[in-house]
Amino acid sequence: MADVKDLPGLLLPWYQQNKRDLPWRKDRQPYHVWLSEIMLQQTRVEAVRGYYARFLEALPTVRDLALCPEEQLLKLWEGLGYYNRARNLQKAAKTVAETGFPDTYEGLLALPGVGEYTAGAVASICFDRPVAAVDGNVLRVLARFLADERPIIDPAVKKRAKALLEAVYPADSPGDFTQALMELGATVCLPNGPPKCESCPLSARCRARLEGKTDTLPVKPRKQQRKTEDRTVFLLRCGEKLAIEKRPDSGLLAGLWQLPNGHGPGTPELALAQAAKWGCEPHDILSQRHKKHIFTHITWEMEGFDITCGREDPRFVWATPEELQTKYALPTAFRQFLEE
Ligand code: SF4
Q1: Relative to the CA of 203, which ligand 1 atom is closest?
Q2: What is the largest CA-CA distance in the chain?
Q3: Which of 37, 121, 278, 334 could disulfide-link to 133, CB 3.0 to 4.6 Å?
Q4: Best of 10, 139, 145 to mutate for ligand 1, by most ligand atoms within 8 A of CB?
Q5: Is 76 left (phi over 0), alpha (psi -120 to 50) or beta?
Q6: Nearest CA owner, ligand 1 atom 1
Q7: Do 37 and 133 have their domain in common?
Q8: Within a domain: residue 60?
Q9: Taking the CA of residue 251 as centre, how many other CA atoms within 13 Å lie in the half-sphere pointing to its CB?
Q10: At what angle do helices 84-99 and 30-40 cross, to 10 degrees?
Q11: How wide is the angle at C-alpha 34 spanned by C-alphas 250 and 167, nearest 5°?
Q12: Are residues 138 and 236 in the same domain?
């Protein structure tokens, strides 16, 4: 029957044979592992590959990251979302560039933006520390393996999972054990849809499988309803240039660039009137498009008006297509209007 102490023996050989060839597994450099773990929070592996390669090409060392202008940093992060991750990476890089990488769990945990999971991952993978990195993947595997019916969102469940795992961490391969647990959760004991129990190295001992509970475990919290907000978005064009402006320094998408926008669903007449009020001398509406963007707690339903204008009002920055491509970080919520 399921016993946590069997996990290393079952998972490590399986991991050696089945691990995916991922760019951040080519070496154990803490900068590389740390960057990948931060990028992978809330983002799929396939989406991260390209970002990871571009980021390291532009900023190959921690010192390069520490010295990178914020505009360039946000541009490299553009589209990944949760932009505070990038800002915290840089804050931490400034410390690391001065003092070197901490090689303990506690030292890593003290860096800005590094939580228990990331500290555990870097400490075990890069510095052979026997500390667990417990994320949703690992909690799901454990909840199923042990048929634990307590909700995995409960901090006490996470704490217990960390303690149970750390009691059995293999001294000679802590990094591989961390990655084996993550890998099983990501590729076999799947979060959505049925787990692939037939190819799971834990299947003979897994209580959820033996008791027919793989559909109902782990117990998830009820999803909170997301608020919906209507917005009007303006694509104000003067020749080939497009108006953009900076968002406020706090709140959603803080400090990033945006297309001018406002509350409410908007109509062509109201959009033209607003563009005139801004002093942009609007001529015609070239097109009207509806787009949607889902954030963690809110959904934006956006009506976008593509308007030709006669005047570059200085309240906005008027960016060329090349500048929009290479210089300004425009979050996906707005960039999707430029994609057609
Ligand atoms: S046997 Fe199935 S439910 Fe159990 S850990 Fe493996 S994949 Fe997950």
Answers
A1: 1
A2: 75
A3: 121
A4: 145
A5: alpha
A6: 203
A7: yes
A8: yes
A9: 5
A10: 170
A11: 115
A12: no
* Alpha carbon distance 121, 273 (integer Å): 54
Number of domains making up the chain: 2
Q: Are residues 151 and 67 in the same domain?
A: yes
Q: How far is the CA of 37 from the centre of ligand 1 (A)?
A: 24
**CATH code of 325's domain:** 3.90.79.10
218 lies in some domain = no
pLDDT tens track for 11-63: 999 999 999 999 999 999 999 999 999 999 988 999 999 999 999 999 999 99
List the residue whose alpha carbon is closest to atom 8 of ligand 1: 189
DSSP 190: -
Contact call for residues 79 and 332 (beta carbons, < 8 A) = yes
**Ligand 1 centroid – CA 256 distance (Å):** 42
CA 211 to ligand 1 center in whole angstroms: 11
Please give the number of the atom of ligand 1 that sits closest to the Cα of 197: 2
Write out the catalytic residue numbers: 37
Residue with the nearest Cα to atom 4 of ligand 1?
Answer: 206
| φ and ψ of 293, to 5 deg | -140, 135
What's the angle, vertex CA 292, arms to CA 287 and CA 295, rounded to 5? Answer: 145
Domain of residue 234 covers: 227-338
CATH code of the domain covering residue 77: 1.10.340.30
> Is residue 221 one of the residues assigned to a domain?
no
205 shares its domain with 235: no
Taking CA 117 as the corner, what is the angle to CA 198 and CA 182, rounded to the nearest 5 degrees? 15
Take residue 331 and report the two structure tokens written for it: 């979050």
Kindly state whether residues 105 and 247 are assigned to the same domain: no
